[in-house]
Amino acid sequence: MPPSIRIPALPTLLLAAAALLAPRPGRAGEAVQALLDGYASVPQLSCELRRDIRSGDGDGVRILSRIWFRRPDRLHAENLSPMKRRTVCDGTTLRQYTEGLPRGFARPVSELEGDALVNLRMLPGSNSNWLEPLRGVPETELPPGGDGAAARRVACHRPGKAYAILSFDAAGRWTRLEMYASEAQTERLLLAEFSDFADVAPSVWIPRLQRIELSMEGVARSETVRIDNLSSIAPIPDAMFDPAPFFPGVAFTDSFEKMF
Predict the structure, then answer these.
(1) Domains of the chain (ranges plus CATH)?
(2) Residue 10: in which H helix or E strand, if any?
(3) CA torsion sign, 102 to 53 to 215 to 122?
(4) H or E segment to which residue 40 belongs
(5) Number of DSSP helices (H) and strands (E) in the chain, helices first
(6) What is the DSSP letter of 171?
(7) What pLDDT sits at residue 54?
(8) pLDDT digit string (tens) for 122-169?
(9) DSSP character at residue 256
(10) Distance between CA atoms of 137 and 215, rounded to whole angstroms?
């Protein structure tokens, strides 16, 4: 061994290892904002979704849908089962009609708020609706590993709010989301695992297989989401966002109560 190389004493090595493994504060919302910015860079997307939902008592339902999405504020979502429902937004007005109801729902985009606006603008399959509440929340870099053997783990937490952990693989893909009632991590609210990724833009991926476990107020639910025929480049005809051909004879109201 060359005389210029010295081996540190054992306590020094232990202190260095502890420093590497200790959580490191990061900038507020850095990882979350990078994901949201990536999804926002995708101008359009089309896909087919199959969601298998099972409650804690064993009851299950399968939801089949087809989605065409284009920015800004253009959406066509056709639910095929268990109920037939169509949602069309032409950029100015969101319209939705469920087969068998006397009226449909319509409201200008400028008047949408909360989940309705988030869902309209969310890139299909991205699960960015879970990220929106974490926008700007302080982040802490955690040691890699964990149950998902992640290359990178980031905790997002604001006092008094849920504690979230995002995991990423070596390629930078978002592979796992854990949400707990508190930083103690004794009560898990959500576990989502993502795989079978498709790139839809440079450094932007959509997981074509998503496994989700939810637990709220003692009620458990699991979901498996499979995404097929996913494309961010296949042409989408402008006619898909024209509501007129898809709602012949349907009367609309801007009140959910008046739909029934």
Answers:
(1) 24-242 (2.50.20.10)
(2) helix 10-21
(3) negative
(4) helix 30-40
(5) 4, 15
(6) T
(7) 93
(8) 999 999 999 999 999 999 999 998 776 799 999 999 888 999 999 999
(9) G
(10) 23
CA-CA-CA-CA torsion sign (211, 215, 219, 220): positive
Collapsing DSSP states into helix, strand and coil, what is residue 111? helix
For the question of whether the overall pTM of this predicted structure is more than 0.70, the answer is: yes
Q: Which residue has the tokens 């998503």?
A: 210
- Tokens 């997981």 -> residue: 207
Pick from 29, 45, 9, 16: nearest CA to 236: 45
Own/partner contacts of 249-258, CB < 8 Å, gap of 24 or more, are: 250/97, 250/103, 250/104, 251/102, 251/103, 251/104, 252/95, 252/97, 252/103, 252/104, 252/105, 252/106, 253/103, 253/104, 253/105, 253/106, 254/105, 254/106, 254/107, 254/111, 256/105, 258/103
Q: Is the pLDDT of residue 232 over 60?
A: yes
Separation of alpha carbons 231 and 251, rounded Å: 33
| Residue 8 scores a pLDDT above 50 | no
CA angle 118, 123, 126 (to 5 degrees): 100
- Residue 107's CB is within 10 A of a number of other CB atoms, namely 19
Q: Report how far residue 219's alpha carbon sits from residue 12's, in angstroms, rounded to the nearest whole number.
A: 49
Q: What is the pLDDT of residue 148?
A: 67
